[in-house]
UniProtKB/TrEMBL annotation:
<dbReference type="InterPro" id="IPR050228">
    <property type="entry name" value="Carboxylesterase_BioH"/>
</dbReference>
<feature type="domain" description="AB hydrolase-1">
    <location>
        <begin position="3"/>
        <end position="224"/>
    </location>
</feature>
<dbReference type="Pfam" id="PF12697">
    <property type="entry name" value="Abhydrolase_6"/>
</dbReference>
<dbReference type="InterPro" id="IPR029058">
    <property type="entry name" value="AB_hydrolase_fold"/>
</dbReference>
<dbReference type="InterPro" id="IPR000073">
    <property type="entry name" value="AB_hydrolase_1"/>
</dbReference>
<protein>
    <submittedName>
        <fullName>Esterase</fullName>
    </submittedName>
</protein>
Length: 235
């Protein structure tokens, strides 16, 4: 199986380094993505949009065999959902790591502070306690050392979706900061945050209690969750 892995904000494809070995060992072809504008701290990201990220991953999917699993972390969830919408017949499952699908007209987070046309990694004090669970001082230092400013567009742009067949693509939601029971409650109550997720016909919830970056805090366990999702019947 081809597994396309899309990082969240401030991260490039190398951020999956501790997650990918078990996937490769299991015989899968793994494709960690570095999104446009995240190639280096000095890259020109001034005009990069959410659509550029979606199009880049869609082009990668088009280059692979039929039967692709998409994995998206955090802001990468918006990107992979855009790809599901663009290629619903090529994606076998979408795995949302501590995130969910961003609906048409919604944005990831337009409250993140823009400095000089881009979004640097904010100070740790800007994050909730739940975000930082298990991210100790060593991991925080390593994260900040590797962090790349995020283009403004992927955070602020409205998602544009067209194909209702996206709801036929099965999804796995890896719940880290919030337990899956709370996500189910939000879906049942019609909460806007989970509105798009609630429209997907087949959703699997997996609890992986930790902070917002399980690829750093629980990489082996995250790999196991992804393997389970890939091995589900019908994938």
């Amino acid at each position: 199986m081809d597994i396309v892995m899309v990082p969240g904000f401030w991260l490039d494809g190398s951020s999956w380094a501790e997650v990918t070995p078990p996937l490769v060992a299991a015989g899968h072809r793994v494709h960690p993505v570095t999104l446009p504008g995240l190639e280096s701290a000095g890259a020109d990201r001034s005009s990069i949009s959410l659509r550029d990220h979606v199009d880049a991953v869609t082009a990668l999917v088009d280059s692979l065999r039929v039967g692709v699993v998409l994995v998206g972390h955090s802001g990468g969830g918006a990107t992979i959902h855009g790809v599901v919408d663009a290629r619903p017949d090529r994606v076998r499952r979408a795995v949302y790591v501590d995130c969910g699908p961003t609906g048409d007209g919604d944005c990831v987070n337009d409250e993140l502070p823009v400095i000089g046309g881009e979004i640097p990694l904010p100070p740790w004090s800007s994050f909730d306690v739940a975000d930082l669970a298990d991210l100790d001082e060593v991991l925080r230092a390593e994260f900040r050392a590797r962090a790349i400013p995020e283009p403004r567009g992927p955070a602020h742009d409205a998602q544009v979706l067209h194909d209702a067949r996206r709801y036929d693509v099965p999804a796995t939601v890896v719940a880290c900061e919030f337990p899956s029971s709370l996500l189910r409650e939000w879906i049942a109550s019609g909460h806007a945050f989970t509105a798009e997720l609630g429209r997907i016909h087949d959703v699997e919830f997996v609890d992986l209690p930790t902070g917002h970056w399980p690829q750093f805090t629980r990489p082996t366990d995250l790999a196991d969750v992804i393997l389970h999702a890939v091995d589900r019947p019908g994938v």
